[in-house]
Amino acid sequence: MIDFYAYKPKEAKVFAFKCPECGTLHYPATMICKKCSTRRDPSGVLFSSWEKVPMGGKCKLLTWTRVYNLPAGFTDRYLLFGIVEFENGLCASGRLLVENPKTGMELNANAGLVREGIDEDIYGFMFET
Amino acid sequence: MRKVAVTGIGHTVFGNLSEFDLVDVMAFASADALDDAGIREERGIIDQVVVANMGGGMLNHQTGIASSLVSRLKLEPAMAELVENGPASGGSAVKMGYAVIASEIADVVMVTGGEIMRGVPGWEGTDFVATLLHPEAEYSYGLTLPAFGAMFTRLYMERFGLTERDLALIAVKDHENGAKNPFAHVQVPCTIEGIHDGPDANVVNNYIAEPLRLYSMCPVSDGAASIILCAADSPKMKYFKKKGPVFITGVGSASDTHCVHEREYPLDLKAVKLSGERAFTMAGLSPKDISCAELHDAFVILEVAISEELGFFERGGYKEAVQKGKTRIDGTLPINTSGGLKSKGHPLGATGVSQVHELVKQLRGEAEKGRQVKNPKHGLAVNFGGFGNNVVTTICSKEE
């Protein structure tokens, strides 16, 4: 059986997926490599499930916002979010833990709890100085 | 391909209609379109109904909406399908209606879009719309469409020197138009003093997602809009003698990466550019031919960015246009004559159909006093889905 949820971050890490043929990194996972069209099989039965490469570390803040009207499931007065670029060229959205951010500032990305689930907590990027 | 005429238009007021049933609201707009076309008694000539809706299943606990609408209007045995393409559902439904006629599957098509969103609390509605984001890489963080609108706005402001005052000027222009539109959600004008320059502006126009403020984004609205299409070469055109037809001359759509962060340059809205190019090519027109435009300003920055992607202004050039009043009703290119999503409102599935409704009204010369564009020939609408990952452009023309 194919586990289509295998790409869910079930541990306190965020992963990119590396194409076994050309080495291109994808975040989030795709089912076909954007460069060489190699297929991925999350179950690893018919095709490779691709190597999971932990993401994190140094990154640069591309843009950010402070949001006051949060959706259902969040009780904070506000939260900050940002989009960053990592040294390997990959980009990602995530939670920003800097109170007075500046576009272009150097940050460090770690994985942290971003949403508490009833049966599964969800981890994602926390960007901080 | 066959030429397709818009032969009838209908619209409910946009606002809080949560006391009404979703399908009833859609049926009301549809009945208006039948009356406008003069075919209520002869509505059996409708071969196909295309319905646009995004949240019926999640917000209203209703599915099978196309079948329900057909029955509510007593249009059986017309063919009926639902189109769900996020906030671009309406534009996609118009495109499907066009395609069904152009491909000779049908001669007469009713396209109706509608949404009831205000029956749930605001945070639930915000969460519902956010479900169109990537589940792990975006949604799980609590990111929302306003958050992406805000991050896009910040980048644009830093790159091109657009200011919060410029954003407020767009809102003032949109509200000026919306105040004269009897279908608009917010039929109240606002002033630059009230929302930016004055001492109470920070209270009246508070931040929602920095740098976006209350007057930088559209309200959450309920409502419906409907149009009736007919093949220009069909014998059934004889039924539509009440009003002169307007033609759909260009339709284009395009997609982009699901995740915003995957884009090569975050300020590029490639799907807007490509959908516009496809529609212009099909119509044999260029941006300078357009007399008025309805652009999907869920966040006012999108009026700026979409107009530049389409080629109405050069990159960074919209700022000067709004400062000089070029996009007002009496300007060189009136934009969002209906009030846009900012003032008219944004009932997701209805919006794309409502935009075409407004173009037809303008091209017929039926817009209300003070917001009728002078002698328009061609109108363009952009319906923007996701944060730019699925966009539909429609061009309507007065003459063949």
**What share of the residues of chain B lie within helices?**
25-40%
Largest interface: A-B, 33 and 36 residues
Q: Judging from the principal axes of the Cα atoms, what is the shape of chain A?
A: globular
Q: What topology, given as strand order, has the largest sheet of chain A?
A: 4-5-6-8-7
Strands of the largest sheet of chain B, in order across it?
Answer: 3-2-4-7-1-8-11-10-9
Order of helices and strands of chain B: EHEHHEHEHHHHHEEEEHEHHHHEE
Fold blueprint:
The complex is a heterodimer of chains A (129) and B (400).
Chain A: E1 14-18, E2 25-26, E3 51-55, E4 57-67, E5 79-86, E6 91-96, E7 106-115, E8 122-128
Parallel strand pairs in A: 6-8
Antiparallel strand pairs in A: 1-2, 1-3, 4-5, 4-7, 5-6, 7-8
Chain B: E1 4-11, H1 22-37, E2 48-52, H2 56-59, H3 65-72, E3 79-83, H4 89-102, E4 108-115, H5 122-130, H6 145-160, H7 164-178, H8 192-197, H9 201-204, E5 207-209, E6 212-213, E7 223-231, E8 246-255, H10 270-283, E9 292-295, H11 300-309, H12 318-323, H13 340-344, H14 348-364, E10 378-385, E11 390-397
Parallel strand pairs in B: 2-3, 2-4, 9-10
Antiparallel strand pairs in B: 1-7, 1-8, 4-7, 5-6, 8-11, 10-11
